[in-house]
Design brief:
Layout lengths: L3 H13 L4 E8 L9 H16 L2 H12 L3 E8 L2 H4 L5 H18 L3 E8 L6 H15 L4 E9 L3 E3 H17 L11 E5 L20 E7 L2 H14 L5 H30 L2 E6 L13 H6 L10 H19 L17 H9 L4 H7 L7 E7 L4 H18 L3 E8 L7 E3 L6 E3 L11 H4 L3 E2 L9
Parallel strand pairs: 1-2, 2-3, 3-4, 4-6, 7-8, 9-10
Antiparallel strand pairs: 1-7, 4-5, 5-13, 6-10, 11-12
Amino acid sequence: MLTQREILSTLEMLQNEHLDVRTVTLGVNLLDCAGHDIEKLKNRIHTRISHFAGNLVAACNHIGQKYGIPVVNKRIAVSPISAVGAAMSSSQLVDVAQVLDEVAAEVDVDFIGGFTALVEKGIARGDMALIEAIPHALANTDRVCASVNVASTKAGINMDAVLLMGKAIKQAAHLTAKDDGIACAKLCVFANIPQDIPFMAGAYLGIGEADAVINVGVSGPGVVKNAIDRALESDSDLDLGQISDVIKKTAYKVTRVGELIGREVADHLNIRFGVVDLSLAPTPNVGDSVGEIFQSLGLLSIGVPGTTAALALLNDAVKKGGAFASSRVGGLSGAFIPVSEDLNISEAARKGYIGLEKLEALTAVCSVGLDMIALPGDTTEETIAAVIADEMSIGVINNKTTAARLIPVPGKKAGDNAYFGGLLGQSTIIPVNNGDNPNSFVRRGGLIPAPIQSLTN
């Protein structure tokens, strides 16, 4: 039971501290839609998604109004299209992406994820077709998101796939050059991808999931910041262990709110409830920033010495508090550090407090990886692949999920600004060491073997 004080503090979170349910994501299994006839495939996909998602937005709005808790985004994640459309060519998979986009618009969700391939150990025919289709699929749709898992702790790093993704990212940026390469903002390259991510652009429905499932992504970086500030106002001598306890208690309350909404939506739609993703996901709004939490902890800015330790403390406390609040924790769960989507982190990049190397170091302890990072437009596909490979190695060696969402902005250089709009925000373009030169290391290809810690059974 919550005390009166805890109830009042939760109401304060809702009214003044940007507490919301960041996303309710409906997972839809499309595996039984597979076939060799493209028209039948598209019709089955459209029918199945419409059947499960037709009332999703209305249900989220109804439950949100009932409790006074906004559900900011309503999304869909589907089975990996590389498996569903394994018999199709790359051009046919672009047509499939357009069907996904059309049905997403019809049911009024913000994004639909699952234009996905899992290639950590090898690339099958359907996987190759999907990777080749990604640039045009993302450039020609508004709501479709793609992800490719190129590495895992059990399998190692598929460097052939990594190089293909460097090429795909460059092509996607070129096709949307007038919008600063925005297609790349809808593409994530993963190591150790979870099967139940509710957040975009990485969301897809795993092979081991049910016909339909509701997953919830909660947020609340502003809530955590304000909790720290209030605690330090009451006692300025709190040590870091005591501040960790403050974060844990806050994460507990945020998680309970998210699970309440998720279960109500699932019951309303008569669909199974899946998981709560505990990730602190920022927006470009003032007061809704992960970066501001570092300043509350006593750092000048995210990126200065002490940042990695502070992020490790934050991530650990969020997970502990959330895990105590729910037995259905999944997804990514931790703290996102997306540069363009977080006003404070974007400003730190503009001022030079944080760069690509520090961001990579932070991914050893954050919940995702190099996220929403704008790079100079002349960064070569080999250099992009090399950055991805570096990020994948952190995930593989540390047995954690990491990802790269990189945007080489056509026609712009380091120090210029890239504008993506809405939730995707804007950012100063970050320089890349030797970024405009070819990289023969990644062109050797092959499989970087799995680490010794993979031999667990």
